[in-house]
């Protein structure tokens, strides 16, 4: 790499000799191009404006724009606006949320669900990450991590379907249980919060595993050894050394998994039942039935987004405080 | 670090590997079942479902449609994401933190909310549901990943190389094209493959922004709602093999280029 680049660097932009007229050499003396460059590089300020204008415009209109438009629509009584109808400002869409049980119940169910599943994912993946980071040689670490990465390249729908086959009444789990004579008739796993939980953990585990792994991997082994020399037992070492120093990984893993699990739509539809309706299904309902109620849907999505951001924000603050308190 | 501890932990790791692989293995197996009904045990086997996939014009056209969307949206994400990364990395200016925050915003918005917001905004921009809308939504959603990966790579570019080029008379554009850009290529390729997979696998945005023509995940979803069948297993397996193969190849590729540049 270094060799290659240095040779390139040497000829970069140098006016070419007649014998080897390269494209770059030709370009740097081509009159329209030099005129353009003069215009662009007239001052550092202009150069910066030319570099910055497009990205700033893009993030404002494409990243922030959709969220702001959603907020705006949620405060109106009609959208898309039919011809001849006037649009009014209203808070009714938000009031509807608190008025009806079928709206706020899925909302709180989603939050409790996402919180519980985040915790389960943490408990499930921590030992795996710990094993990879501390007990496996450097060479094998990457291979064993890659082994876990492969299934996560596969999409949400395909993996949800795989869980349906695993847990169905004629699915693999029921078959195995029957073989061992543990059950006579299949256990109805599907269309319950259990099947939904298994499915969502299956989809999100990696987003917990990777931050945990990188936090644990950075932790020097000598810390644990020092604590052991000072007489700390295994549990104390874990609680006083490993855990406090991996809080950052835990906090970003939990935030990611929580945000992702609140946003699933297809998985709850396919794996859940009528008693496990989550808020994303409620929101989607406003968008694909006849007589679209976009403003209400937008209001509900806004409620969900603001709540999710607030909760993860508070969580991160708490974890930060905990981290600072522990290292003092 | 006792021996017992290590054995217990390695058991947990392998149990986790099973949890991650077994459902997919079962799904692939079920595609060979010689019956219309999904369920174990499998008594007789057939290749018909898999052969049927490639004979099914709907599946083949859906596959090409999904691939076209993935490629076009990735091209947009890569250009925009790289541009943002070049602006943000190693520069200090008023509002940099705000722009960085806005850059990663689409990656933080939960799936359904992002889909709804894009749906509403597409109406404002006058984009009809369909291919264009899906490409646009995927492109915007994937920009943060490109920007982050390219910024990480850019932060390791030795400043002296740019300075040397400038001293030798290269203007900013030539210095970028001849020094910075070649240095960024591994990161850009890695990010592109990630974007391709994200787009190809995406369901929720494709579902809410799509017209009558489904992408592959939307097709599988629609078929699932009308009942499970080994036909779906075969289609899902084709999607699985395609994504896993690209993923593994990308992993090997990035590792190789990293080794090359480090030595």
Automatic annotation (TrEMBL), chain A:
PROSITE patterns referenced in this protein's UniProt entry, alphabetically: ABC_TM1
Domain ABC transmembrane type-1, first and last residues per copy: 107-315
Keyword terms, alphabetized: Cell membrane, Membrane, Transmembrane, Transmembrane helix, Transport
Secretion signal, residue range per the UniProt entry: none
One cellular component (GO) term of this entry: plasma membrane
Residue spans crossing the bilayer: 48-65, 111-133, 145-167, 187-210, 245-266, 297-315
One biological process term in Gene Ontology: transmembrane transport
Keyword Isomerase on entry: no
CDD domains for the chain: TM_PBP2
Annotated compartments: Cell membrane
Topology of the protein relative to the lipid bilayer: Multi-pass membrane protein
Top-level taxon in the UniProt lineage: Bacteria
Family indicated by similarity: Belongs to the binding-protein-dependent transport system permease family. CysTW subfamily.
Stated name of the protein: ABC transporter permease
From TrEMBL, chain B:
Residue ranges occupied by any ABC transmembrane type-1 domain in the UniProt entry: 63-250
GO CC entries: plasma membrane
One Gene Ontology term from the biological process aspect of the record: transmembrane transport
Membrane topology category: Multi-pass membrane protein
Main location: membrane
Similarity remark: Belongs to the binding-protein-dependent transport system permease family. CysTW subfamily.
Protein name: ABC transporter permease
């Amino acid at each position: 790499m270094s060799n290659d680049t240095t040779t390139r660097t040497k000829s970069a932009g140098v006016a070419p000799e007649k014998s080897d007229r390269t494209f770059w050499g030709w370009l740097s003396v081509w009159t329209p191009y030099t005129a353009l460059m003069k215009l662009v590089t007239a001052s550092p300020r202009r150069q910066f404006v030319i570099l910055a204008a497009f990205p700033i415009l893009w993030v404002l209109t494409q990243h922030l724009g959709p969220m702001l438009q959603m907020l705006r629509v949620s405060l109106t009584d009609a959208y898309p606006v039919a011809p001849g109808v006037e649009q009014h400002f209203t808070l009714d869409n938000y009031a509807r949320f608190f008025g009806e049980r079928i709206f706020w119940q899925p909302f709180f169910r989603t939050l409790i669900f996402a919180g519980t599943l985040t915790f389960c994912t943490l408990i499930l993946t921590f030992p795996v990450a710990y094993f990879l980071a501390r007990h496996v040689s450097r060479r094998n670490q990457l291979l064993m991590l890659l082994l876990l990465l492969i299934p996560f390249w596969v999409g949400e729908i395909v993996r949800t379907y795989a869980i349906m086959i695993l847990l169905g009444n004629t699915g693999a789990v029921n078959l195995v249980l029957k073989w061992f004579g543990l059950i006579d008739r299949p256990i109805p796993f599907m269309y319950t919060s259990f099947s939904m939980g298994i499915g969502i953990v299956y989809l999100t585990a990696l987003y917990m595993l990777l931050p945990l792994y990188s936090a644990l991997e950075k932790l020097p082994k000598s810390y644990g050894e020092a604590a052991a020399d000072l007489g700390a037992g295994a549990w104390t070492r874990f609680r006083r050394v490993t855990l406090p120093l991996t809080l950052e990984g835990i906090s970003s893993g939990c935030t990611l998994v929580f945000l992702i699990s609140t946003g699933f739509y297809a998985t709850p539809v396919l794996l859940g039942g009528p008693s496990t309706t989550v808020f994303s299904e409620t929101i989607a309902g406003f968008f694909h039935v006849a007589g679209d109620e976009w403003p209400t849907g937008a209001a509900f999505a806004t409620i969900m987004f603001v709540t999710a951001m607030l909760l993860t924000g508070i969580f991160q603050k708490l974890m930060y405080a905990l981290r600072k308190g522990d290292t003092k | 670090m006792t021996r017992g501890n290590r054995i217990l932990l390695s058991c947990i790791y392998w149990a986790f590997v099973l949890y991650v692989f077994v459902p997919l293995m079962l799904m692939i197996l079920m595609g060979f079942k010689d019956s219309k009904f999904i369920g174990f045990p499998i008594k007789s086997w057939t290749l018909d479902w898999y052969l049927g996939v490639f004979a099914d014009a709907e599946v083949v056209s859906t596959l090409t449609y999904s691939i076209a969307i993935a490629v076009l949206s990735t091209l947009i994400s890569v250009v925009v994401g790289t541009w943002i990364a070049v602006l943000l990395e190693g520069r200090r200016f008023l509002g940099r933190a705000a722009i960085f925050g806005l850059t990663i915003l689409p990656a933080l918005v939960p799936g359904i909310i992002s889909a709804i917001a894009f749906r509403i905004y597409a109406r404002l921009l006058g984009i009809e549901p369909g291919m264009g809308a899906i490409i646009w939504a995927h492109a915007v959603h994937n920009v943060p990943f490109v920007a982050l990966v390219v910024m990480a790579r850019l932060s390791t570019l030795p400043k002296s190389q740019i300075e040397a080029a400038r001293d030798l008379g290269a203007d900013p554009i030539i210095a970028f094209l001849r020094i910075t850009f070649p240095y960024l290529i591994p990161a850009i390729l890695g990010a592109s493959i990630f974007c391709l997979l994200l787009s190809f696998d995406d369901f929720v945005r494709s579902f809410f922004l799509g017209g009558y023509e489904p992408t592959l995940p939307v097709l599988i979803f629609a078929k699932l709602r009308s009942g499970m069948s080994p036909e779906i297993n075969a289609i899902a397996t084709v999607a699985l093999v395609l994504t896993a193969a690209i993923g593994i190849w990308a992993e090997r590729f990035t590792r190789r280029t990293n080794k090359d540049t480090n030595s």
